[in-house]
Fold this sequence. Notes:
By secondary structure, the protein is α+β, with helices and mostly antiparallel strands. The chain has helices at about 25-35, 50-55, 65-80; strands spanning about 5, 20, 85-90, 100-105, 110-115, 120, 125-130.
Amino acid sequence: MSRAINYPYSLDPVGATEATEQANKIWLDRLLTLLSTNVGQRPMLTSYGTDLMRALFENENVLDTSIKQAVSTAVTVWLPEIKISSISTVLPEYGGQAQVTITVILPDSTIKTLDVSSAIFSSDGTVTAVR
Length: 131
């Protein structure tokens, strides 16, 4: 049986690192780790991660395509056991928040949906929106 550290990293009431043995949680945690890591962020594995942050700052007319491409490329390369069923985006108009919903099929054929949001900062450095 596999055991993995929970994502996000946390401690239990006695101060030990929380972990899980639930296979679906492990796969979703791996996906969240991949999506929250920028390409080039890991010094010993510079190609690991997604270009999601770069995609979020693309021109308006290619933003949707860039986000979908960044997610699907990273999952195909780093988590080939997970199949993407769909990726949908709700793009910011003036609210400042992009919402990406990813539906995946896990190795045991379970279908899960994952929501990823971005926060956009205004020119004075304050957060316009965050989730």
